[in-house]
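Ops channel
N.P.: pipeline sanity check, posting one input/output pair.
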């Protein structure tokens, strides 16, 4: 059967197809769009007004009648710095999908140099402003080109840790700048400016508004507006927004992703430098080029409130945080209460933001991984004679060092030696929580503090037994960790890192502070504020520092065995599966919530045990021993050793803490200046080099 194709009939000359009459919709559509746009603007304005009213009520409830107009203005001026830090965090997060812990440090070095030119060498403040602006941009570009691009294919966690190393490196550099310029930043009282004498006074002759405050606010607002216009109307700004969701997809569409990321770092550096420069006349020249982790906490809070994407909201949130800080200062005399409140603000913000995670991350197509795994010795090689001998020799050398060192060093140094196995126990808890469960914790010493607070307080105030105190400390660590882990059901990845950082500040600033109810009731108090180490079984005297050191080593061995046993059982395998693919794991009957909470519980119990030993080691619960810097340092040290390897994580933590404790004893060899920055160098440039060659830590080598 064949089919014949016939030509289509031709229309007669002059024939035109009949066209349907379509009504003209252009004017109607434009009118409707205008109405919808007007409704959108009205709704948005209504939301901002509602937020302002809620914030006003919040401030009135917390700081009833103590926040004067002068404090309010000071808070707004100071908050502009945190708002700009939040904006800088958003810029890098939108391009690299990481938390940039060097957001303030990138611009701090040129800003400090410019300020010292003004103060020490008489250069005009207006003349040094371009130095800070272009210097911050230059440092941002150098950071991206020399450091960040080298880790472009590394896991997100490693890249975030690298930014901590960058901040530490800039902190070390900032330490030398005043020395090179012949001044000390801490000795500089004020920064002269052309408008410092302009003031508005109240009826009692007290300043309500100063020229320095106006300058800080004007510069910050102008920078924010220019940045918003740049992102909205320039080609590179639009490209920056386009590459924020998925760098690989944007690259396939022809967007120069690497160039866009460099521009983001340039903008972040310039913003940070200018914010620090205009804030210096109000708060002085920074002594630490990293500006400390508390500044980072306030900036992170502003960025989280803004969903890591809204620049205007981040700036407004920063201003509000400044008001909260000065409200706390007016009521309590310090900002401890304000830093503790940041935990509540962050938790509420994250839990109510359903769209906080990007579409790419939520869909599982993110460019980055979470944790870098190292490859253990293959099974085929483990029985080889050379491998067996090397492993036995390494184990024997480690045991020899642990046993011999307390008999070699002087007796006055043994109390410092006791701290090392305790830090090793904390490292084991981090391996379980971060290395195996993928839940990033930057506040592990907050959990350690919980165990020390509950058990140490009971031991000092009620004289409970040693092993009872250990059991209570473990239970306290489990309870606190599970409470922290509950938001982890919805808060994932780097957002959880922000939450744990805020938790660490809340523990140190509020819970361990005897000026507030919890610390007043639980902390050791009165003449009994001293923990006596007992005599175990009538012969083991823990008051002997060497004996207590070996006791802590025994607890470290127990913690390592518990962790390794947990990893080899089904619970450990479930944890790894939930970490590697949280979408496929439920299809194998894995309960993600239960698996994550189990990781928090086991990790918290081990950290709580370390807290009890720490309290007995110091014969008291000393809040300064659980500060946030210790949490950051132990996390970085664990990354250096190997975040997924129990033995090497312990080696990394013990080595870094030993350098911190015993490094000052090398002052006669290295000199005072170099000795002072040894921890910054170890957790800064050396950390970056180690991660560049071994992303999985020393264990990978």
């Amino acid at each position: 059967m064949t089919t014949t194709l016939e030509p289509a009939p031709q229309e007669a000359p002059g024939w035109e197809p009949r066209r349907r009459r379509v009504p003209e919709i252009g004017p109607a559509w434009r009118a409707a769009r205008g109405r919808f746009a007007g409704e959108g603007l009205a709704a948005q304005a209504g939301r901002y007004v509602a937020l302002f009213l809620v914030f006003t009520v919040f401030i009135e409830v917390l700081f009833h009648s103590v926040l004067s107009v002068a404090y309010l203005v000071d808070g707004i001026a100071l908050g502009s710095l945190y708002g700009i830090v939040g904006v800088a965090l958003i810029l890098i997060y939108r391009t690299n999908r990481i938390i940039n812990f060097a957001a303030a440090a990138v611009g701090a070095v040129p800003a400090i140099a410019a300020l010292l030119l003004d103060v020490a060498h008489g250069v005009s403040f207006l003349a040094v402003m371009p130095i800070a602006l272009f210097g911050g941009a230059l440092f941002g570009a150098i950071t991206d080109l020399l450091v960040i691009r080298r880790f472009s294919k590394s896991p997100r966690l490693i890249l975030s840790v690298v930014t901590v190393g960058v901040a530490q490196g800039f902190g070390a550099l900032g330490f030398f700048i005043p020395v090179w310029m012949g001044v000390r930043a801490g000795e500089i009282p004020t920064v002269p400016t052309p408008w410092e004498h302009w003031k508005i006074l109240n009826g009692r002759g007290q300043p309500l508004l100063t020229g320095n405050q106006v300058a800080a606010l004007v510069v910050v607002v102008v920078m924010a507006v220019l940045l918003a216009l740049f992102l909205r109307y320039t080609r590179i700004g639009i490209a920056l927004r386009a590459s924020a969701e998925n760098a690989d997809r944007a690259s396939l569409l022809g967007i120069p992703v690497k160039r866009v990321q460099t521009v983001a770092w340039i903008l972040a550096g310039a913003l940070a430098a200018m914010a620090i420069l205009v804030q210096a006349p109000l708060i002085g020249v920074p002594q630490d080029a990293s500006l400390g982790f508390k500044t980072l906490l306030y900036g992170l809070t502003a960025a989280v409130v803004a969903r890591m994407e809204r620049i205007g909201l981040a700036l407004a949130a920063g201003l509000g945080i400044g008001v909260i800080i000065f409200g706390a200062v007016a009521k309590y005399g310090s900002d401890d209460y304000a830093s503790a409140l940041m935990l509540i603000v962050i938790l509420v913000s994250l839990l109510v933001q359903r769209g906080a995670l990007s579409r790419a991350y939520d869909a599982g197509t993110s460019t980055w991984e979470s944790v870098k795994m190292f490859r253990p010795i293959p099974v085929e090689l483990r029985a080889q004679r050379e491998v067996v001998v090397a492993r036995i020799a390494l184990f024997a050398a480690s045991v020899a060092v642990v046993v011999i060192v307390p008999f070699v060093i002087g007796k006055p140094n043994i109390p410092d030696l006791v701290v090392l196995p305790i830090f090793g126990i904390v490292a084991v808890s981090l391996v379980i929580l971060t290395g195996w469960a993928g839940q990033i914790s930057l506040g592990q010493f907050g959990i350690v503090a919980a165990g020390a607070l509950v058990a140490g307080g009971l031991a000092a105030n009620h004289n409970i037994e040693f092993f009872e105190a250990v059991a209570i400390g473990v239970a306290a660590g489990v309870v606190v960790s599970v409470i922290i882990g509950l938001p982890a059901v919805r808060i994932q990845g780097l957002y959880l890192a922000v939450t744990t950082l805020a938790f660490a500040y809340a523990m140190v600033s509020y819970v361990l502070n005897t000026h507030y109810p919890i610390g007043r009731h639980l902390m050791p108090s009165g003449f009994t504020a001293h923990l006596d180490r007992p005599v175990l079984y009538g012969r083991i005297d823990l008051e002997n520092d060497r004996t207590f050191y070996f006791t802590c080593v025994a607890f470290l061995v127990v913690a390592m065995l518990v962790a390794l046993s947990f990893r080899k059982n089904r619970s450990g395998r479930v944890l790894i599966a939930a970490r590697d693919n949280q979408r496929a794991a439920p299809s194998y009957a894995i309960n993600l919530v239960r698996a994550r909470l189990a990781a928090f519980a086991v990790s918290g119990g081990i950290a709580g045990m370390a807290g009890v030993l720490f309290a007995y080691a110091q014969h008291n619960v000393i809040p300064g021993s659980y500060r946030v810097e210790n949490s950051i340092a132990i996390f970085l040290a664990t990354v250096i050793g190997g975040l997924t390897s129990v033995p090497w994580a312990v080696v990394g933590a013990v080595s870094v803490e030993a350098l911190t404790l015993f490094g000052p004893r090398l002052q006669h060899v290295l000199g005072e200046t170099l000795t002072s920055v040894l921890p910054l160098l170890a957790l800064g440039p050396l950390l970056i080099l180690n991660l560049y060659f071994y992303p999985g830590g020393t264990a990978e080598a």
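N.P.: looks fine end to end. The beta strands are 199-201, 207-210, 535-536, 540-541.
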